[in-house]
Amino acid sequence: MKRCLEKKGLRKKIKCILKTIHIFYIAFFYSPFFIPLRKFFWKFDKEKKTVFVGLSGGVDSSVSALLVKEKYNTVGVFIKVYQPEIVTFCWRNEALDAKKVARQLGIPFVFLNLEKEYKKNIFDYMISYYKKGLTPNPDVFCNKFIKFGAFLENALKHVADFVAMGHYAQNVYNQEKKVFELKRGKDQNKDQSYFLSSINQEQLSKALFPIGNLEKKEVREIAQKHNLLTAKKKDSQGLCFVGKVNMREFLKNYIPEKKGNVLNLKGEVIGTHTGAVFYTIGERHGFDIAKEYKTPNTPKMFVVAKDMQKNTITIAPRDEKRSDTEENDQKVLEQKEIFIQNINFISIDDFDYSRTYQTMIRYRGKVVDSKIEKISENKYKVIFEKPQTAVSAGQILVFYQNDVCLGEGEICM
Length: 413
Fold this sequence. Notes:
The chain is α+β, with helices and mostly antiparallel strands. It folds into 3 domains: 49-247, 3-Layer(aba) Sandwich (Rossmann fold), CATH 3.40.50.620; 256-333, SH3 type barrels; 335-411, Elongation Factor Tu (Ef-tu), domain 3 (Beta Barrel), CATH 2.40.30.10. The protein is built from 10 helices and 18 strands. A 6-stranded antiparallel beta barrel has the order 13-16-15-14-17-18. Helix 3 crosses helix 8. The protein starts with a helix and ends with a strand.
């Protein structure tokens, strides 16, 4: 039995070593450095445009590449992003799946290392925001600086005319206005226009979203019909460089803990926490409430405010069983208006401030009618028709006109 286990352990080690060698081989010989040489062997139709498709190793990007191949010369590209050493999420498996899909589709494959760019623009930005007590949105910045930043630049520098990604969003050219418009994806449950709200007109003009007019179940059906190896693969969850992890525990590797008090709406100390920087408005886990303030009927408590200078967080219930006093206290926390900065307009030169727009203060949040006023060159006021709660500074507010995503702004303190 022992000898059998030893053999299995040895096989596992050998398999891991071979996989590592394979990855190093892919990273070197399939890097963009060799594209000028390799493109002479790519059997491309000179009459067609060329598209570099981001292949993540998942079903959405696989089907995107399949659909692009029907109309364009297609190259599959796996983007290697920065990953901290403490993370166990294995990007190597995703890279190997991406390469297998490219082979299955009969398209060239490129391994693009963007670790430096990702660490600078996404990872370092995220840590710095949390240190300030802000709630960042790395997925929005990833699209702006990586997928439609460094990746797009690299693709255009070589032989590409466009880049394509497996996002559930639509890129429509408005003939009347002579601009490209970013529209919501057909699948409202999967719509990712929120995360694409920071890209500009130039980036959008070079972007394709092949599955934007499909629903998720249709994407799965297409993958199964063509026997793609990712057809039944589960969707990835969490941040792309850490996978599905407890963000608070992850941040503790970079930000020291600092014990502080948990307050109720009356300002009374009712518990403790490990540091205000680790909590986002709307969270309901990770803090301790003293026994004397707990009863069998105590409702779920959420973080509704935090004071970075005093290192305190304030919690309150958010359900229909609040007492009249709690209901009145809760109204104090509702915000009728907020401020945003660093605004980005995707397809509008002259923004009409007299109109009512639809806004979202978080991904998959409720859409609320709002007015937008310009305060200064880089500051705007957003006035909600219905007061909003759990508004987090640092997060992105996205504004729409019907199904068209017009742009975004960062929520200020």
